[in-house]
Design brief:
By secondary structure, the chain is mainly α. It is built from six helices and no strands.
């Protein structure tokens, strides 16, 4: 049995052919999130993991007891729809962040021009 929830999560990440950086990003967290996990993890993060990986045995993840994967995979159409919506919303969020960054740059330029013309 692995020692910590982080160790078990790393085992699962390896099992699904991912890496800590990709997995952290899939949860909407910073690149290094998985590496910073201590002895416990918030229920919101565990919930997100289970939404993305419903075949992961939450009992195993939290306690180390039982098997890593559930015997049956959950193929709930609502869950699949939610996963797709989540992907779409994440993409839209990234696009909006880029637009905000661009607009903030434009505001900064306008403010700098305004300050320069007042000082002239």
């Amino acid at each position: 049995m692995d020692d910590s929830i982080k160790d078990r999560l790393l085992t699962f990440i390896d099992h699904i052919g991912s890496n800590p950086r990709q997995f952290s990003k899939s949860l909407g967290r910073s690149d290094g999130y998985v590496r910073t996990i201590g002895k416990s993890m918030g229920s919101d993060v565990i919930g997100n993991i289970l939404l993305l990986h419903p075949n992961l045995n939450v009992n195993w993840l939290i306690t180390g007891n039982g098997e890593m994967l559930l015997e049956k995979s959950i193929d709930n159409p609502d869950l699949l729809r939610i996963k797709e919506e989540n992907r779409t919303l994440k993409k839209e969020n990234e696009d909006l962040k880029k637009q905000v960054w661009y607009l903030q740059g434009q505001v900064d330029l306008l403010l700098n021009k305004s300050v320069k013309s007042e000082g002239a």
